[in-house]
Amino acid sequence: MKRRTFLQKAGIGSLVLPTTISTLGACQSSRTPQVLILGGTYFVGPAVVQAIQETGAEITLFNRGKTNPNLFPQHHHIIGDRLDGIAAYAPLQEKEWDVVVDVWPEDSTLVDQATQSLQQSTKHYVFISSIAVYSNFQEVGLHEESAVVALPDSKGDWYYSAHKAFAEQLVRDRFPGRHTILRPGPIKGWRDPELDLLYWLVKLRGQAELLGPGTGNDPLQFVDVKDVGRFVAEAIDRKWIGTYNTTGPRIEPLLWSEFLQIAKQHLGVETKMYWPSEDFLREQQIRSFTDLPLWAPLSEDRGFMQISNDKLHSLSFELRPVQNTIADCLAWFAESHPDGIKFGASNSTGLASEKEQTLIQLWKAT
Length: 366
Ligand SMILES: NC(=O)c1ccc[n+]([C@@H]2O[C@H](COP(=O)([O-])OP(=O)(O)OC[C@H]3O[C@@H](n4cnc5c(N)ncnc54)[C@H](OP(=O)(O)O)[C@@H]3O)[C@@H](O)[C@H]2O)c1
What we know:
- By secondary structure, the chain is α/β, with parallel strands linked by helices.
- The protein folds into two domains: 3-187 and 223-246, NAD(P)-binding Rossmann-like Domain (Rossmann fold); 196-221 and 250-364, UDP-galactose 4-epimerase, domain 1, CATH 3.90.25.
- Helix content is 32%, strand content 14%.
- The chain is built from eleven helices and 13 strands.
- The protein has helices at 3-9, 44-53, 108-118, 160-174, 196-206, 225-238, 256-267, 278-283, 310-314, 322-336, 353-364; strands at residues 34-38, 58-63, 76-79, 97-102, 122-128, 179-184, 187-188, 209-211, 223-224, 242-246, 272-274, 288-289, 292-293.
- The chain has a seven-stranded parallel sheet with strand order 3-2-1-4-5-6-10, sandwiched between helices.
- The longest helix has 15 residues, at 160-174.
- The chain is globular and about 70 Å long.
- NADP nicotinamide-adenine-dinucleotide phosphate (NAP) is lined by residues 10, 39-46, 63-67, 81-83, 103-104, 106, 128, 130, 184, 186-187.
């Protein structure tokens, strides 16, 4: 996926401990907490469901029953299509929900209708947004109070970021003091449909030489999908109200050179790395983020991979070790691509090996 596409598609408020709401752990009555997941069966949703089920809550999933319909037979399922408008939510209004987790929508109209429909019957609304809401990726350390994108006058001109930003506002307005909004950066791990991080892992494992993403001195951020799921569960349980950047893979910054070294050690390989200059890559018309997946050089949007996770840190939220994410990515790749993949050929992710070899030879000759 291109970085611009991520921004178009995909991106310190106060930590309030409200006394007015009572959610998972706070359901101190004997009633089992009722959690409704809007979505739940593709990538982020399953991680959220898995994390919440560990809390013992009773889970209901609402979706069309098309994506992975056999996942989670142990939970309740209500079938419905959110594209049917406000009527779609009628079956959900028959019950009181301790928590609703709205995982998937990229269209704020759906969030508008869901929040309207569920406002009265829901105590706590959780929404998965994105760092894409931020307006200026030249800024380093974008935090939860940083400016978000302006909404174009015509809704027809809205794109992913605008929809997410407006959806956030709807959630805040309709669930004041009883909402949690997550802003993840690139999400990686088990069930990830993107091949970007995998490009590096699969190539490291299978090649003797690898062309690195520039000099290796650019930062890299992503978050493990299981961390996203666990953050939702903990936010519910510990009443983390407000908006949270959920970026990782760890609190300390991570450079590409270090990440690839960690990956090499994890894989037990000795792949020889080449670290070309940006000038060389530009001359060769190599595109960041696309040809060299996930690489967002400082010279472009310097803040994109340097989003602040100070607020996350202040909660003492433990992120999974990078090695665990690597292991999950590879395990998912083995399951989803049993025949492997040829990068740069049948898909737009990364460089084909032949082209990469040519570039390595050219770089060696400089
Ligand atoms: N990937 C990243 O790097 C990244 C980064 C930042 C933020 N995010 C955000 O993370 C979230 C990822 O979501 P996900 O797709 O993984 O969520 P998910 O909840 O795992 O899967 C999408 C769910 O939506 C349901 N659905 C689709 N169309 C529907 C409809 N018309 N009516 C009712 N349900 C419908 C699907 O089931 P059916 O098809 O059966 O209906 C499925 O259960 C998004 O909000 C995205 O913006 C992603």
